[in-house]
TrEMBL record:
The keyword Secreted applies. Gene3D superfamilies: Immunoglobulins. This is VWA1 protein. Its main location: secreted. InterPro entries: ECM_Regulatory_Proteins (IPR050991), FN3_dom (IPR003961), FN3_sf (IPR036116), Ig-like_fold (IPR013783). It is found in: Secreted, Extracellular space. It holds the Pfam family fn3. Keywords: Glycoprotein, Repeat, Secreted, Signal. GO terms for cellular component: extracellular region. Residues 1-90, 92-180 form the Fibronectin type-III domain.
Length: 184
């Protein structure tokens, strides 16, 4: 029953600790930072009645050292320490899938969908060629249907994730439309 972490993601985790203090008997000093970087430590004051806290805006794939120091005016409590490693950064799109192909349309979908992505751009055009078209898709969607395509044509589709941080990441896939019906 000591200081420990749950709900670990690539940028946050929740700290839980035993209720040592009350609202009246003091507060906690919480120190945390990347392991081996004392200059990068942050300190928070936490009310004595609290026994959990979420730390966010952390770096992915990083081990954090956390120290919880009960500041009690009643009695001495030793500091509690733990180490927590955030998950590696998830990247999107990690895969692009083509489905529901017809002569003039197909569906493009991608995964994973991450909170850190603001929008997706879908760039598509026939191969070979330089007549690509661009479609913007909201960041919480993971698929779109491309229409008004040419039958029996190979398309290059590039999905670009635009992260809220401004970074971008792209992944491409090829897709073929079906042969059109005779007489169309």
């Amino acid at each position: 029953n000591r200081l420990h972490a749950t709900d670990v993601t690539s940028s946050s985790f929740r700290l839980l600790w035993p209720q040592l203090l009350s609202q009246d008997s003091g507060f906690y000093s919480l120190e945390y930072g990347p392991a081996g970087e004392p200059a990068a430590r942050s300190t928070l004051q936490v009310p004595g009645a609290q026994s959990s806290l979420v730390l966010s805006q952390l770096a992915p794939g990083t081990t954090y050292e956390v120290a919880l120091i009960p500041e009690s005016n009643v009695r001495y409590f030793p500091p509690q320490r733990t180490r927590v490693t955030t998950l590696p950064e998830e990247i999107s799109p990690a895969q692009v899938l083509i489905s529901d192909s017809g002569p003039r349309s197909f569906q493009v979908s991608w995964a994973p969908v991450l909170d850190s992505v603001a929008a997706y751009q879908v760039l598509y055009g026939p191969l070979p060629g330089n007549s690509a078209r661009l479609l913007q898709v909201d960041g919480n969607h993971n698929s779109t249907v491309l229409q008004q395509l040419a039958p029996n044509t190979t398309y290059l589709v590039t999905v670009t994730a635009i992260y809220r941080s401004g970074r971008e990441r792209s992944l491409s896939a090829k897709a073929c439309t079906l042969q059109g019906e005779r007489g169309q």
